[in-house]
Structures are given as C-alpha cells and as structure tokens.
Design goal:
3 helices; single chain; alpha+beta; 3-stranded antiparallel sheet; 9-stranded antiparallel sheet
C-alpha cells in the first residue's frame, strides 16, 4: 500500500482531529529530537501513552504488569499495577464462583466482586453507609465451612491519598468490623453479614455485565 493509499485513513475528521493547532503543536514537540521517521513514531507513541490521561486507559501489553492511566475529578495520573496473589496453591476442585454479584435489579447500585484463586475467595463489597455515602469493605480471606459455604471476617480500611499522589503503604490501617458468610447454591447464594454489630442477610446472584 502506498502513502497515497493511507491518506483517507489519516485525514482529519470527527474522530481524527489531526490538523487541530494543539495536536500539531504536541506532535512537533514530541518529535523535535527525532532523527528519522521511526524515531518520530516511537516518540509520538510514548507521548500519547505516558502524558495523555484517558478515562480510564489500561495498557495490557504485559498481562501480568499493566499500566492504569486515569482522569478522576480533573486529576490525571498513571499507576503501575500487577496481579495480586492471595490464594495458596490447592489442587482441589474450586467452586467457580469468581464473578460480579448483586441483589438483582431491584437492588441496583451495590454489589460484590468475588475473586477466586484456587479455593480461596477475596471479596470486595461496594455499598453505602447509614448516611448514604459510598463505602467499601474487603473480605480478603476465609475458610470453607462445608463444600459450598465460605466464611470469614470483614474489614474496613484507611490509608494515604492515592489520587494524584504517591501512595504510602505504611499508612494502611485495617479494622475488623464483623463477619460474613456466603452459602452458594445453584443459581445464586445467600450473603449473611454482621458489621459493627448490625446483622443482615441478602440473596445474591451473578451480575450480567
């Protein structure tokens, strides 16, 4: 394919605003030190990848170590993230419950992310407190009470600022606020919990997304 054949695909339009003054200026700045066309392409790629924040953008070039670029409340940032090991190797058959779970359409707005490694489940619960403010709890471990019931403790965490700042892991604090139990059955599960002395039980199901 000749250069002329590429022209229609590179022309400015609704989605490729290549002739905008800000885009032209950014391209010139990024390629100012390029010695050849290949250097220019690589410089442009690095500039777009590392300096332009998307909402959000995750680079999965290396599936085990990825880059999360974000814009939240006007704050741009880029964080390196990797897979978190949490389940010890276990050759026993897993229950295969790793998924997004919720209380159904009638309770839209809160839910649970249950991550499964081998036979260990790590739960993250996004919900709301008594004042209606968004609240997160974590359930990082537990034990099987029987073949289909997983139970453990619920924690509330606080730590250093993360948005637009270097995270300080030494400020992480975890507070044991109660207990949980998931009783899995065909088609759903029962989620029982006690948080700060308040008990509840909610039927949950896998959330299609």
């Amino acid at each position: 394919m000749s250069n002329d054949d590429h022209a229609p695909f590179l022309a400015a339009g609704a989605f490729v605003d290549s002739d905008a003054a800000s885009i032209v200026a950014l391209a010139k700045q990024a390629t100012a030190d390029a010695e050849n066309p290949l250097d220019a392409v690589l410089s442009l790629y690095a500039t777009i990848r590392d300096t332009i924040a998307y909402d959000p953008y995750v680079d999965f070039t290396d599936p085990a170590n990825v880059a999360l670029t974000y814009t939240i409340a006007g704050v741009n940032g880029r964080k390196a993230i990797s897979r978190q090991p949490f389940g010890p190797v276990d050759a026993s058959a897993a229950l295969d419950v790793g998924d997004m779970w919720w209380g159904g359409v009638a309770q839209n707005g809160w839910g649970l992310a249950l991550l499964e490694q081998y036979r260990t489940i790590f739960g993250v619960w996004f919900t709301y407190d008594a004042a209606g403010a968004a609240t997160w709890y974590v359930m990082p471990s537990g034990s099987w009470l029987d073949a289909s019931t997983w139970a453990g403790h619920i924690y509330r965490t606080t730590s250093s600022p993360w948005l637009g700042a270097a995270y300080d892991h030494t400020r992480l604090q975890t507070v044991d606020v109660g207990t949980f139990r998931f009783a899995f059955a065909e088609g759903g599960a029962a989620f029982d919990y006690v948080i700060d002395g308040r008990a509840g039980s909610v039927p949950i199901e896998r959330q299609p997304f």
